[in-house]
Amino acid sequence: MRIVRDAAALAAAVSAWRAAGERVALVPTMGYLHEGHLALVARGRELAQRVVATIFVNPTQFAPHEDLGRYPRDEEGDIAKLEGAGCDLLFAPPVEVMYPPGFATRIVMSGPAEGLEGTHRPQMFSGVALVCSRLFGLSRADVAVFGEKDWQQVMVIRRVVEDLAIPIAIETVPTVRAADGLALSSRNAYLDAEARQKAVELYRVLTHAAERLKAGATATEACGEAETRLREAGFRQVDYVALRSELDFSQMEKRIGPARALGAAWLGQVRLIDNLVI
Fold first, then answer.
1. Quick one: 25 exposed, middle or buried, by C-beta within 10 A (0-12, 13-18, 19+)?
2. CATH of the domain at 119
3. How many domains in the chain?
């Protein structure tokens, strides 16, 4: 696996592959990789002859009070995992490559960025839209692969690609979970042993809420009950439990067609998110 840190080296590698008639898949990450990330690489290998993974902890999606400075990092371990997964190239740029001197562009998001994560982390989706647009342009990949755990983020990225006519396909991979159901996340590293045991309740509560919604309960009923159950399980704050359309991320009171139950809650200082297909 090649490791490059500047835009010119990335462009040269991709150009050589394209000249040979090979498709390129992109797997954007912020590092501290787990099996969920490696599932994205595996899907990329199914979709293209070449896979480019990126590691970049993107400052534009973090608010000043968030964990940019302490976000878990392990580049050496990440490199070993990517090599084992058959990744062809790792693009791990410094901030000045992604946002060079004079960089002045910002993206203002609405639509699927509104509500839920957009309410509780209002800076995030503009930063995600910006960094993904830049990675898409630098890599000139044919397809990008994302995990479904961050479903609202997937909807935002699809909206950006369509609105800006970016020539890239967006593919998703179902959430990869631990044996007890907890969605894998780099931020799970923040959980101590006691919090890790409690964390799985988010998945269990969302599973129960999804069953209630499938059976005809309203979002007010099922999601309200879920919030109560999370607080009883030891979550200090519940940001939301909600029902949204899988097609356009619009709000629903009753499930009509493909939908997702989504939740975000705090265990101590650790914020967990998850969602389930209904």
1. buried
2. 3.40.50.620
3. 2
| Global confidence as pTM | 0.96
- The residues that are catalytic are 37
pLDDT band at 21 (very low <50, low <70, confident <90, very high): very high
Instruction: Check if the beta carbon of residue 44 is closer than 8 Å to that of residue 51.
Output: yes
Half-sphere exposure of 65 (CA within 13 A, CB side): 4
Residues of the domain holding 268:
186-277
Model pLDDT for residues 151-203, shown as the tens digit of each residue? 999 999 999 999 999 999 999 999 999 999 999 999 999 999 999 999 999 99
Q: Work out the pLDDT band at 133, boundaries 50, 70, 90.
A: very high
Tell me if 148 is assigned to some domain.
Answer: yes
Give the pair of three-digit tokens for residue 190: 């923040």
Task: Give the residue carrying structure tokens 């995030």.
Answer: 124
